[in-house]
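Students often ask why inverse folding is considered easier than folding. One informal answer: many sequences map to the same fold, so there is more than one right answer. In these notes we will look at a single instance of the problem. The structure comes first.
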């Protein structure tokens, strides 16, 4: 957080905006991935959960976002970690399809 944000007292607002931005990007990515679903890799987004079923290989269930009981910084970190995980999965799905 920069000095101006600390001075004007808007640091919390900036962090809240970052939560919304990170979670929105994550939900958008999950939607993109759902459209990549195939007979071998079934991807379903249901509310705050993405379920990835790798037919014959297993499945993975990920809660996309944390609720408001967690701090903004924890929610941002969680969203960023999930973004990285979903980007890796998306990359793997694209390479498997090639």
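Output (designed amino acids):
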């Amino acid at each position: 957080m920069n000095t101006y944000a600390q001075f004007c007292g808007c640091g919390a607002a900036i962090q809240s905006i970052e939560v919304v931005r990170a979670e929105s990007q994550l939900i958008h990515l999950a939607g993109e991935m759902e459209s990549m679903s195939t007979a071998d890799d079934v991807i379903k987004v249901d509310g705050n959960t993405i379920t990835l079923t790798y037919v014959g290989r297993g499945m993975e269930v990920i809660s996309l976002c944390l609720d408001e009981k967690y701090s903004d910084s924890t929610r941002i970190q969680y969203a960023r970690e999930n973004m990285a995980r979903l980007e890796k999965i998306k990359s793997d799905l694209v390479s498997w399809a090639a």
